[in-house]
Amino acid sequence: MKPPLGSPKRGAVLLLVLGAVSVLAVLAVEVAHRSQVQTVEVARYAREAEFRRLFDSGIEAAKGLLAEKRADPRFDSWGDGWNALVSWEPGPGNRVSLQVEDESGKINLLRARDPASGAWTRGAIARLFEYLRKADPEREKEWRNTETRLWRRLNVTEQEEEAAIRPEVGGKQKVEDPPLTLDGLREAGIPMEVVFRAIDDEKPRPSLDCYLTTFGDGRVNLNTAPLAVLYALDPGLDEELAWQIAAWRGSGDGSAQAISANRAFLQARDMERVPGIVQRATVDGQEQVIRNLYADVQDQVGVKGQVFSVRMTAEVDGRKRQAVAYLESKAAGRGPDVVEVLAYEEIEP
Fold first, then answer.
1. Mean pLDDT over all residues of the chain?
2. Beta carbons within 10 angstroms of residue 115's beta carbon
3. 219 with 193: CB under 8 angstroms?
4. N or C: which end of the chain has fewer CB within 10 A?
5. DSSP string covering 210-260, please?
6. Distance, CA of 130 to chain centre
7. CA torsion 175→179→184→187, rounded to 10°?
């Protein structure tokens, strides 16, 4: 006989049924949620793998450019074409752009704390920011703040310079490790867009990665140094002389886009051929050299790249990401140089 509709026994059964339904509903939602999470994770892993595949292909393409587009083993110049902007679409919705740069055309900021070359490097960085403030007056305050943060990140300020180069023994003076790459400057509060520029921007704003590096032996390649870096080489090089150096090698403004492959510095001493670098005067009827600006910087300049960077932008399903790899070029006998990867990092927002 069935229990009455209002009996406690029938009510308990109904509660059990409702409870079971509720549990099943919760389990169904949980299973659906986990399935959705797993689907999202699989899609994310697939996208991450595709980004890395595109960046790896970009690195190999950069190696090919350096192997095939360096015409003369004695020097590296923009005129060789290895730094042309390259883009391709390996698949639907995917795209990669890259550009190779000569890190030796920049100032190695890590040398600021080196006992041997620190004084020159610190002076060069200070002159670089002086040039940027004058050439880009709308960002004068931003460049001044950036310079202050840079010195603090390097533990080199006017008051702390000696402590940074020769810290006290016994741990009394804590000196922060220098950044391994320019990305470490963001830890000092320097915005990403000031440190890095996007290579696919039509009119990219000047940024620190145009002028500074953490790689190389510290010698600046006269053939690839931007106008601002040429100005920073020595106090004796004013804007006119820096422009003369850039114009002699074939570019009036020092940019890669304006370079023409008509001439390059084959050796660093060729700098003496630039009008105004060697200053002469007639003394007692004889012409004499009164100043040779090349002699002032001969230990800091060269004509060949040692470390190159490849700046890459990849796009996967409408999402963009940047990465940079640093490549070292080593001589390999009579054949082309061997190019090895020194470092790789993705530039996160």
1. 83
2. 8
3. no
4. N
5. GTEES-SSS-EETTT--HHHHHHT-TT--HHHHHHHHHHTT-SS--TTT--
6. 21
7. 0
Model confidence at 147: pLDDT above 70: yes
How far CA 325 is from CA of 112, 239, 308, 322, 347, in Å, comes to 23, 32, 8, 10, 11
Range of the domain at 319: 45-347
Any idea what DSSP says for residue 70? Answer: -
**Residue found by looking up tokens 């450019």 in the block:** 65
- How far apart are the C-alpha atoms of 249 and 277, rounded to whole Å? 14
CA distance readout (Å), 38 to 41, 45, 259, 332: 5, 10, 51, 49
308 burial (CB, 10 Å; 0-12 / 13-18 / 19+) is buried
pLDDT tens-digit map of 112-146: 988 888 999 999 999 999 999 999 999 999 999 99
Q: Is residue 40 part of a domain?
A: no
**Residue 280, helix vs strand vs coil:** strand
Cα distance between residue 74 and residue 320, in whole Å: 38
C-alpha 220/C-alpha 124 separation (Å) is: 11
**DSSP annotation of 75:** -
SS3 120: helix
Considering its fold, how many domains does the chain have in total?
1
Strand 94-102: give its sheet, edge to edge: 86-91, 94-102, 307-316, 319-332, 335-347
Report the interhelical angle of 118-135 vs 140-153 (nearest 10°).
160
**Torsion sign, CA atoms 212, 216, 220, 223:** negative
Helix (H, G, I), strand (E, B) or coil at 136: coil
pLDDT confidence of residue 323: 93
- CA-closest candidate to residue 57, choices 320, 314, 342: 314
Beta strands, E only, 57-149: 86-91, 94-102, 107-108
- Residue 306 sits at φ, ψ, to 5 deg, of -115, -45
**Quick check: 106 and 213 in contact, CB under 8 A?**
yes
Nearest CA to 232 out of 107, 78, 139, 140 is that of: 107
